[in-house]
């Protein structure tokens, strides 16, 4: 998982010693990474990793994409259901604004 549990907790303003939702947070982190890679049509690699030559479309995780992933995790954490009494909107535009420029669209 490219977004660590500690980073998720900082983003969500949870204390490090709060462990009751660690399983959920790990699930969210993995889902956010998978969703972002699917949206981008690219595999993401840690900034410290080299992108393998066998993956010409691979991408080292840029800071703005990481921020978008943290924002998406926040959205999923705070909106745990797809139905509510208030209008649900598409994922905030900021996610696509941060992540979108890295999207690979095969021709």
Automatic annotation (TrEMBL):
CDD domains: gp6. Signal peptide: none annotated. InterPro entries: Phage_gp6-like_head-tail (IPR021146), Phage_HK97_gp6-like (IPR006450). It holds the Pfam family Phage_connect_1. This is Phage gp6-like head-tail connector protein.
